[in-house]
TrEMBL record:
Binding site for Mg(2+): N10, E403
Domain of life from the UniProt record: Eukaryota
Organism: Apodospora peruviana
Active site: residue positions: D157 (proton donor/acceptor)
Pfam families: Acetate_kinase
Required cofactor(s): Mg(2+)
Taxonomic lineage: Eukaryota, Fungi, Dikarya, Ascomycota, Pezizomycotina
Protein name, UniProt field: Probable acetate kinase
Length: 419
């Protein structure tokens, strides 16, 4: 079977990132290009483009060309096709598979070839991931309509968490209503956690189903995950990505009654609602008007971590506290059988100060002290050990997670997506 070109599309709330791979069935895909367009909600939008690991464009000006995620997809696809030094893609017809990151996949436990029925099922989940799902499905619809020669595959952030035990995923509410309305913990960032699990296992010289880790995907959206024998055991996000840790604009878990004391109109639909997407004021407040933005006025955690301003210090200390709380809970849930604590995501990979303060607080659990030199150094490898070496002890690792590669890998291994 000949090689295929795979596009891995990751549509965020304010950006679109696409990685281009060549792939052979059953083999690891090889990245040949990558493009990202950011700033859709904080103009002007900027284009970054690299080919075979070398930067071609950095912060390219694409104003007046991209206002939406669908516009961003068009700009990126045009960049690939018009690149004379990327002969693998000359036309849209050269693309064989397009895999899409879909945040909320409901009860889907594995990637799905997108059909009319699949698309309809996913549309019903839009309200549960209002910052992401609708944007991703808009690009899916665009690809189905305009790239008819490609097969479209949905990869779900929730699918990795299908293994969470019933006693952990169940909410203590009327179970007849819970089942009829699909109200349970789903969990997210699962594509990242799948990559982290594989990469960590390889680093430790184990098989994926032999590792127990506590993994942290920390960025604008942040979560923690207890991984037992290579499978998700528990995670901080729940029915929606709002639960658990705070983020750039999300509150994370709060007293459910808080929002009713916050504003009088929380039950009404937000002006941002559309006929396809219904968002209450409560959801808008907790998803888009909370987190670092509410505490400090900025969503840039790097600036927060470097500042001694009291408001920023409060946000920093609050995040350290919440993250350590989940780690402690998961350590007990895993009965102390933890091979490694793994930091990933933009904050997890870049903030040495944050990692240092978290690990210092966790010394009581037996984790090694931070190796200050390793912690401050540039992370060159996929996985880096930043803990002081202790014979037979636990590890503190940083993983450069790669959601696009994980999606492309899952498509390259599944013959159903090639026929």
């Amino acid at each position: 079977m000949k090689k295929k070109i795979i596009l891995a599309v990751n549509a965020g709330s304010s950006s679109v990132k696409i990685s281009v791979y060549t792939a052979q069935l059953g083999e690891a895909p090889v990245q040949i290009a990558e493009g990202s367009l950011s700033g859709l909600t904080a103009p002007p939008p900027a284009l970054d483009y690299s080919r075979r690991g070398k930067t071609v464009t950095k912060d390219g000006d694409v104003r007046d060309k991209a206002d939406t995620q669908r516009d961003a997809f068009d700009v990126l696809l045009k960049a690939f096709i018009e690149d004379a030094e990327l002969p693998e893609i000359n036309t849209k017809d050269d693309i064989g598979i397009i895999c899409h990151r879909i945040v909320h996949g409901g009860d889907f436990a594995r990637p799905q070839l997108i059909s009319d029925a699949t698309y309809a099922a996913l549309e019903k989940l839009n309200d549960l991931a209002p910052l992401h799902n609708a944007n991703s499905l808009g690009i899916v619809h665009q690809c189905v309509s305009e790239l008819s020669g490609a097969r479209n595959v949905a990869c779900f952030d929730s699918q990795f968490h299908a293994s969470i035990p019933e006693h952990i995923r169940t909410y203590p509410i009327n179970q007849d209503i819970a089942r009829s309305n699909h109200l349970r913990k789903y969990g997210f960032h699962g594509i990242s956690y799948a990559f982290i699990t594989r990469a960590t296992a390889k680093f430790l010289g184990k098989k994926p189903d032999e590792v127990n880790i506590i993994a942290l995907h920390l960025g604008s959206g942040a979560s923690a995950c207890a991984i037992k024998a290579g499978k998700s055991w528990d995670t901080s996000m729940g029915l929606t990505p709002l639960a658990g840790l705070p983020g750039a604009t999300r509150s994370g878990s709060v007293d459910p009654s808080l929002v009713f004391h916050y504003a009088s109109d929380v039950g009404k639909l937000s002006p941002a609602s559309t006929k396809e997407l219904h968002i209450s004021r409560a959801e808008e407040i907790l998803n888009k008007e909370s987190g670092w933005k509410a505490l400090t006025g900025t969503t840039n955690f790097g600036a927060i971590a470097e500042s001694d301003d009291p408001e920023k210090r409060l946000a920093f200390d609050l995040f350290v506290d919440r993250v350590c709380g989940f780690i402690g809970s998961y350590y007990v849930s895993l009965r102390g059988q933890v091979d490694a604590l793994v930091f990933a995501g933009g904050i997890g990979e870049k903030s040495d100060r944050f990692r240092g303060e978290v690990v210092d607080q966790l010394r009581c659990l037996g984790f090694p002290a931070i190796d200050e030199v390793a912690n401050r150094a540039r992370m060159e490898s996929v996985v880096t050990d930043i803990g002081k070496k202790e014979k037979g002890g636990q590890h503190v690792l940083v993983c450069k997670t790669d959601e696009q590669f994980e999606m492309a890998r899952s498509c390259a291994e599944d013959e159903d997506f090639w026929s």
